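User: Fold this; tokens only.

Assistant: Input:
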Amino acid sequence: MAKKKSVPMRMCIACREMKPKKEMTRVVKTAEGEVFADPTGKAAGRGAYICGASECMKKLNDKKLLHKAFSSEIAPEVYRGVEEDILGEK
């Protein structure tokens, strides 16, 4: 009998729903403090996941969720860059 392969699940920081990791986009903060969308999901650093739904993207900006996820001040340009990267992937 073959084993079922487990699907890694991650929680969206905006809608707080658990979804398969492959459907999510990872946003990473490196040790140097750089924050960017990581399409490979393998960059070194602290990661937070967002699903990319339009409501989630709005919440990300309105509630400054990257501030909370990374416990540091994030510049508005970073939010715009992350949003462009995520919407460009979809």
